[in-house]
Amino acid sequence: MKTARMIVCAAALMTAAGPAVQAFAAEDEGGPVLTLDQALAQARKRNRSLVAERARVLQAQASVDQGWAALFPTVTAQGKYARNNIAFSLPRPIMNAAGMTIGADNLTIQPIDQLDGSVTATVPLLVLAAYPALNAVKTAGQAAQATFDVSESSVLLSVAQLYYAAVISDEVLAARQSNVKVAAATLQNAKVRFQAGTVTKVDVDRAELALVRAEQGQREAVFGRQKTYRALATLTQHQGPFQVQVPNFPAESHDERSAMHAGSTTTTSPSSTTPGRWAPSLTGCSSMAVRAMPSGT
Predict the structure, then answer these.
(1) Measuring CA to CA, how many Å separate 170 from each of 173, 211, 227, 229?
(2) Are 123 and 22 a contacting pair, CB within 8 Å?
(3) Kindly report the CA angle at 180 between 289 and 209, in degrees rounded to 5?
(4) Which among 130, 157, 216, 270 counts the fewest CB atoms within 10 Å?
């Protein structure tokens, strides 16, 4: 009796909290559909790790340009204007061809407005130390580009995995909600049959316990779905709610995989001759996930 009372109390609590969980799940749904290509494009453009790696690549390229500067000619031009307080000049005699003084003028030493300018050109002929330094910065630039490629591949792979995990979490949540409906209908049926006297109170308690387990599984599915969606939104830096959908694969690619599978499973074990075992589709993954769930009936 004590165990039955605990089951009934737990069922009452779960039933009271059930609408809140369904409302919370409904708030999490909605928003535009985010395709796999859009998610990959957003991650390639907005992911913070890739933005930082892209900045490091630009920094390495700037270092390469700086290394080339030591081997290029350098031209420097400078101009200056000065305003003097007084002008200073010296008298200078003017002489003719015979050496006789015929007059005088002033030789300006310091004008009131003074303009100065200079142009300097430097051409490196042989700079032995610049070539190893240039090779070093080129190698550093190639290493930065390779690091960026590795980081980009890792981020895109994580985005694809999370995207498919989000699709599977939607399917799992739908299955959990179906289990709750089936368990609720089973409990109602058990209550009616108990009132009719065809079943015992133990059967009703079992149906209530199955409903509690189904609602708990639904909550776990909701929380797992939200966790997956948050991780995907963090990697892609997507703002606002969104939904995912199952990518549409070309039919010819599937036929090619089926033909390759048919030709490669002639000498395998009996367990490997099942169609689609070596190339499971997303629907197969979802079906396996659903079959692994505890039934609510």
Answers:
(1) 5, 21, 12, 10
(2) no
(3) 100
(4) 270
Q: Give the per-residue pLDDT at 256.
A: 54
CA-nearest of 160, 178, 155 to 244 is 160
Q: In the chain, which residue ranges form alpha helices assigned H by DSSP?
A: 2-28, 36-46, 48-69, 130-196, 201-236, 251-264, 282-291
Query: pLDDT tens for residues 138-155?
Result: 999 999 999 999 999 999
Q: Is 119 helix (H, G, I), strand (E, B) or coil?
A: strand
CA–CA gap between residue 122 and residue 128 (Å, rounded):
16
Query: What would the mean pLDDT of 105-129 be, rounded to a whole number?
Result: 84
pLDDT digits (tens, 9 = 90+) for 56-112: 999 999 999 888 888 888 889 999 998 888 887 878 777 777 777 777 777 788 888
Residue 197 in tokens: 């006297």
Q: In the block, which residue shows the tokens 């089926």?
A: 258
Burial 122-146 (b: 16+ CB within 10 A, else e): eeeeeeeeeeeebeebbebbeebee
